[in-house]
Amino acid sequence: METRIEYDSMGPVEVDARRIYGPQTQRSFNNFKIGDHRIPIEQIKALALVKKACALTNAKCGAVTEEKAKLIAQVVDEIVDGKWDEEFPLTVFQTGSGTQTNMNVNEVIAHRAKQLDESNPLHPNDDVNRGQSTNDTFPTAMHICAYFEITKRVIPALDGLIKSFEKLQKKGKGLQKVGRTHLQDATFIMVDQEISAFVDGLKTAKTMLVQNADYLLDVALGGTAVGTGVNTPKGYLDVMETVLPKVTGAPFRVKNNKFQGLSLKDAFMMAHGALNTLATTLFKIANDVRFLGSGPRCGYGEWHLPENEPGSSIMPGKVNPTQCEALAMVCAQVFGHNTTMTLCAGSGAFQLNVYMPIMIYDFVESCRLLADAMNSFTTHCIDGVEFVPEKLKFFVEQSLMIATSLTPYIGYDKSAKVVKEAYKRGCSIKEIILEEKLMTEDEFAEAVRMK
């Protein structure tokens, strides 16, 4: 590999000549060969937007020249467009503040700017990182990244699933079925009523996502090293208050408690908590759907799920609820991420949390997995569900819990006795009622009719 010599405050470093990053990136690349987990490119792009906002703010405050600010902004636009993705190779398992990644972005911007204009060189620290610390830029980028992952990736996928279930709900209108509690037969319910729980549960999860994403709009930018704002130019936050929303296209807020923003991750946890709640709802739905579609002959079999691929390497004709299983596994992964992030959020010390790279990695993966799984579940499962009316009718006719509707007429004790007798003899409740002349046929029909 051809190399070039670069220098930082610790001395010379051999840097891969093909790359436009610098010595601190190379040191991190050499020193942290831990796993294949890379800082998400979404975080890199968010961090680049922070650099653009800082450059424009610094220029307005007189801390850097207009020319340098424009150069930084130009390179940031290239990074956001995906032109330099390969220049950000660093692992998640580095310093807990994300310092090496912050410097990675600073170095790429400085080196690329030199290619664009050699007459106006940028220093990665003095110019690109002017008035900043990793301690405020990295968590700010986390909030920007997380906000857009929720609003632009997760919510559209969730909306699609909600619409699919709403269509299925309409299709199930007028179909009666047996309800189930404790995995035992319960009183009757309509198919559309059962599905309404899924629809409203997902809508509630969306509301929680939107509400909790608002906490992410408060960012730590301007706090620099420990929250005091050391080295920021005069009037920095007043200018940034206008610049950051313009650069990001979202109403991020900078006038807040920086000490909280650096040392605590409560807003981040609230946002992921909403993702975890969504995963919990999806986990329940996935399990219900695969039970309702179980069979085809020896299970519940009330729903016919789309047959997408063979289900067994040994059993001919077997088809499995694979979309449900995939979604359930994604939910399990999100639960694990939430546990990891809970530990990380509570483990910061004094003025800084030092678990940030793994937190943003898990957050982005949770969003990506949930969105992908919901899209897949919608397209390859729920959109193609068909009900099995004959199976629904069979269970209704066989149900012993129809006796619940008889208690206003014959009382609880007599109803319980009828249930036991019907179960013992393997016949229907109606047969026992009419045989013992406890009710007329018309009275029975009125009692069991869905109100």
UniProtKB/TrEMBL annotation:
Presence of keyword Transcription regulation: no
Keywords carried by this UniProt record: Cytoplasm, Lyase, Tricarboxylic acid cycle
Subcellular location: Cytoplasm
Reactions that this protein is recorded to catalyse: (S)-malate = fumarate + H2O; L-aspartate = fumarate + NH4(+)
Enzyme class: lyase
Domain Fumarase C C-terminal residue range list: 402-450
Assigned GO CC terms: cytoplasm
InterPro entries found in the cross-reference section: Fum_hydII, Fumarase/histidase_N, Fumarase_C_C, Fumarate_lyase_CS, Fumarate_lyase_fam, Fumarate_lyase_N, L-Aspartase-like
Sample GO molecular function, one term: aspartate ammonia-lyase activity
Function of the protein: Involved in the TCA cycle. Catalyzes the stereospecific interconversion of fumarate to L-malate.
PANTHER family with a match to the protein in the record: ASPARTATEAMMONIA/ARGININOSUCCINATE/ADENYLOSUCCINATE LYASE (PTHR11444), FUMARATE HYDRATASE, MITOCHONDRIAL (PTHR11444:SF1)
Family as reported in the entry's similarity comment: Belongs to the class-II fumarase/aspartase family. Fumarase subfamily.
Misc. remarks from the entry: There are 2 substrate-binding sites: the catalytic A site, and the non-catalytic B site that may play a role in the transfer of substrate or product between the active site and the solvent. Alternatively, the B site may bind allosteric effectors.
Protein's name according to its UniProt entry: Fumarate hydratase class II
Phylogenetic placement of the source organism: Bacteria, Bacillati, Bacillota, Negativicutes, Veillonellales
Gene that specifies this protein: fumC
